[in-house]
Amino acid sequence: MKLAIGSLFIGVAVLALKGLAYWLTGSVALLSDALESTVNVATALAALIAIRVAAMPADANHPYGHHKAEFFSAVFEGVMIVVAALLILREAWDGLRMPVPLDAPVEGLAVNMLATVINAAWAFLLIRGGRRHASPALLADGRHLVADVLTSSGVAVGVVLAVATGWWILDPIMAILVALNILWSGTKVIKDSLSGLMDEALPDETLARIEAIITTEATGAVEAHDLKTRHAGRATFIDFHLVVPSETTVFEAHEICDRIEAALKADVKGASIAIHVEPEHKAKETGVITPD
After folding, report:
1. Does the CA dihedral 181-146-90-93 come out positive or negative?
2. What is the pLDDT of residues 4-51, one digit of tens each?
3. pLDDT at 149
């Protein structure tokens, strides 16, 4: 929560600095950088709201919790990035038709680079915090800031070249490159978020670890099958069927399940596990995990 609140304040401060850089220079490229920062402010607010909602406990209407709220925030961020790219392209087109000399480029670049340094430091903190808390909203915000840092650096290079050569058309050309880059970034954020909303399975390496844990801890069972996984924000859902010998008592089957659950929760942060116990005649020939 503190990171999300911090993002909002950092976003406002960076937007003010980049707006000042544009006001000093009149650069279309620096304007494009400032427009992208307006997205940072809007999405930081959306991420803050989403994280608050996602932290709410499960209730009668949402028995699986509110974890997916963070995916909606990430989708919103991606859409806003795409909108910003289209606005930048429009401004760049006007600059291509009527390129103009830049005012106070040194001062403007200095202010813009200060904003870039702040963004770089905050992006590092967001990505580290997003990975630690398994938060899609914080990760999306951090990755967007990384893209912002790269584009700001590119903008600075373009403005320096325009001033050095007197080819003022380089300024709107750089703005176009910025727009294309953040357009790619926005579509990637949307794609990653939609995979979570569509209940995409966990990565192959995580699935392999889960299967290995079941194989090790399911001693006394016949097999496990129909393994299904999905993630929703900070929660990871794992469910499968566990086949036990017909003579196994309820107590013994429960002990096996408890052992598997404890091992899975120790390995997969935020795991929510459902195991359906079945008698031996329910064994399958495909998709089977056989205990050691």
Report:
1. negative
2. 677 778 878 888 888 888 888 888 777 777 877 777 777 677 767 776
3. 83
Domains located in the chain, CATH noted: 2-197 (1.20.1510.10), 204-289 (3.30.70.1350)
Residue in this structure with the two tokens 């008698």, named with its chain if needed: 279
Does residue 91 contact residue 46 with C-beta atoms inside 8 Å? no
Q: Is the pLDDT assigned to residue 258 strictly greater than 80? A: yes
Length of the chain: 292
Using CB atoms within 10 Å of the CB of residue 266, give its burial: 0 to 12 exposed, 13 to 18 middle, 19+ buried.
exposed
Nearest to 172 by CA among 73, 27, 45, 280: 27
Looking at the DSSP bridge assignments, the partners of residue 276 are 241
Residue 230 carries which side chain, given as an amino acid letter?
Answer: R
Q: What are the backbone angles phi and psi of residue 222, rounded to the nearest 5°? A: -85, -50
81 exposure class (CB count in 10 Å sphere: 0-12, 13-18, 19+) = buried
Q: How far apart are CA 54 and CA 135, in angstroms?
A: 10
